[in-house]
Amino acid sequence: TAIAITEQPVSVSVPVGYSFVLRCRAQGCTSLQYQWFCQYQSDCHLIPGATNQDLPIIAEQTQLYTCRVNDLHRNAVFSNWVKVEVHQCVARGLPPRLWQGEPVIVLHPSEQRVEVGQPLQLQCAAMGVPAPSYQWYRNGNLLEQQKRKKLWITHTKVSDSGTYLCCASNSHGEHWTNAVDVHIGGGEAILPPAEHLQLFHLVFVLATGKIALLVGNNRYQHHPNLVAPLRDVFELGHLLEHLGFQVVSLLD
After folding, report:
1. How does DSSP assign the chain, residue by residue?
2. pLDDT by residue (tens digit) across 128-176?
3. 157: Cβ–Cβ under 8 A, 6 or more apart, which residues?
4. 194-205: b (≥16 Cβ within 10 Å) or e
5. Which structural domains are found in the chain, ordered by start?
6. By C-alpha distance, which of 6, 154, 187 is closest to 79?
7. What is the mean pLDDT of the chain?
8. Most Cβ neighbours (<10 Å): which of 20, 75, 229, 235?
């Protein structure tokens, strides 16, 4: 009769020195034996003495783990491989003893200026137990294919310009990175006189139309980061544009 794993271990993302437990549970028709393995880079080895359902760990370095479950008939199955990601530098003001596993951003993306056709990479990272999942947004719109810590666009277009931010979430909640501007384009073109006049006319029309100034502040010196202001700016800005306003959005 096959062995069935009823509880898989889960990946975590934790600060160095953090103590936690990986769990594996299984069912079978005979008594079961457990053995944990770890892999660092290309080296995979058995963990001596790690023969219980629970594996206590003190985080030291990023590694992969799996558990082998045997029965008395020499049947064996392996659990899923899970990643224990260890951050050597944690966010200031985060005492691990007060942390309950909710996502905490430890690396924010930075503003980028990229030429058209060149690659774009934005990066973020968050701690969390279980390890957070990631979702990137541009101008408040969800980017379906960008669900990793690193956002990667191989060949950029002008339409890739905008304000980017990422949401890290797990079963304990969510946390958002800072919003950053990405500028895609070539060098500044020198406009001929006729185009100067057209640009001046366009600016004059915009200046005499309906203009909405939206300010969303997500960073306070003596208060935790908020989520709603960024969403409100994106959603309200979209609505006002449909109403004929020229929208200027300022974040942080």
Report:
1. ---EEEE----EEEETT-EEEEE-EEE-SS--EEEEEEEETTEEEE-TT--SSEEEEE--S-EEEEEEEE-TTS-EEEPPPEEEEEESS--TT--GGG--S--EEEE----EEE-TTS-EEEE-EEEBSSPPEEEEEETTEE-TT--SSEEEESS--GGG-EEEEEEEEETTEEEEPPPEEEEE--SPP---HHHHHHHHHHHHHHHTS-EEEEEE---BTTB---SHHHHHHHHHHHHHHHTTPEEEEEE-
2. 999 999 999 999 999 999 999 999 999 999 999 999 999 999 999 999 9
3. 116, 184
4. eeeeeeeeeeee
5. 4-87 (2.60.40.10), 104-185 (2.60.40.10), 210-251 (no CATH)
6. 6
7. 85
8. 229
**CA 107 – CA 123 distance, rounded (Å):** 8
Classify residue 123 by burial, with Cβ atoms within 10 Å: 0-12, 13-18, 19+: middle
Q: What is the 3-state secondary structure (H, E, C) of 221-234?
A: CCECCCCHHHHHHH
Burial of 95 (0-12, 13-18, 19+ CB in 10 A): exposed
The residue written with tokens 């049947």 in the block is 75
Distance CA 100, CA 55 (A): 19
Q: Token digits for 146?
A: 């960008």
CA distance 116 to 186: 6
Q: Specify the amino acid at residue 115.
A: E
